[in-house]
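Note to self: keep these together.
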Amino acid sequence: MISRRLHKILGLLLLLPLLAWGATGIVFYFKPGYGDAYEQLTPKFYPLKNVAPLIPENSAQWLKATRVQTQLGQHLLVNTADGVAHLNASTGAEFSQPTDAQLRAFINDAIAHNPARYGQVIEREGDVFTTNTGVVITLDWPRLQLRQRGPDTEFIDTLYRIHYLQWSGFKTFDRVFGLLGIALLFSLSLLGFWLYLQHRRRTQRPTR
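Structure:
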């Protein structure tokens, strides 16, 4: 019967996507390793010491100011209508970026809480630092923020791309491929339901 053959063909076409959806769905449900992979890494802050009032002339334009202490000194992070300013809280001037050695020590201080994952910084390229465990840490100096990605982060992101049929890396093709997969899944379900109804009618047909 053509409908049964079509049902089998659709089932075979969807076998790999369905297996991928099922396997990755299990990972997304239990979320193993998510804590480390997507940790919101922050600089290590210390209690403020010798805090002196600082009221620069342009402070009337500030929307928000946050004062923090790191091993590099006291930072004043200011939000204005024009953006973010990173000031030295001791002088009120712009906090110039420290030396390479100081920045490496700053990053190592931030990741010291989990040496098994982060290890130590071994390489730097601009604002990107790489550790001996393969974790890449990006420094946003104007905002004094850190962002980290490791091999586990890349692996989980790959699972997401597999789950959502983003297999080629080309956005347009993957979108069409995903819609095709959904259309085939609906077709398979509807055809299976139609075959079930046909079988039910035959079995309930009165015998003579």
